[in-house]
Give the backbone structure.
Amino acid sequence: MISALQVLSVLLSGLLYFGFFFLNDWLFSGLEAHPGANWIYLPAGLRLLNTLLLGGEGAIGLLLASLALSFGVVHDDPVTAAVSPFISAGVPYLVYRLALAKGLPSTLEQLSPTYLSALIFLHAVATSGLHSLWYAMRGVSQSFLSGFSVMFIGDLMGTLIIIYLIKLLLMVWDRMSNVTPPI
């Protein structure tokens, strides 16, 4: 049976990804190399964050939002549009599952900078690699290498920005909650 929390997690994940897609377009539209490849791509950070925090529900939310965006905004070709969302949602989920197998700590706060950096790097390489391969095969980008370089940098930058911003906010929250008010 599906719980209300699971449905809420799927909806939150999808809405955040959807919103950050348009925020990224507004902030960095001039940095788009081709459809689906930006030099800074904040939604890539949401892909990893949603799966690290919400697991399968996060991946499902990403998939639903990616399908809506892929068919509605990004791609004209239905075959390209159909496969891209599975890369967008599947790769971060696989990175999450790999991290679980390697002893992922229970909270984002407990992740060491080294472990978190490795997850971010793996996520950026895998996501941009598979997307670039798919886009080169479909003729969306001129070549695998040109697409990969843009997507890797964009995914890496976007993921670093989002993950470390959230980590910073969690640290500030923790410090503020441990401060005792003056009497």
In short: The longest helix spans residues 144-177. The mean pLDDT is 88.
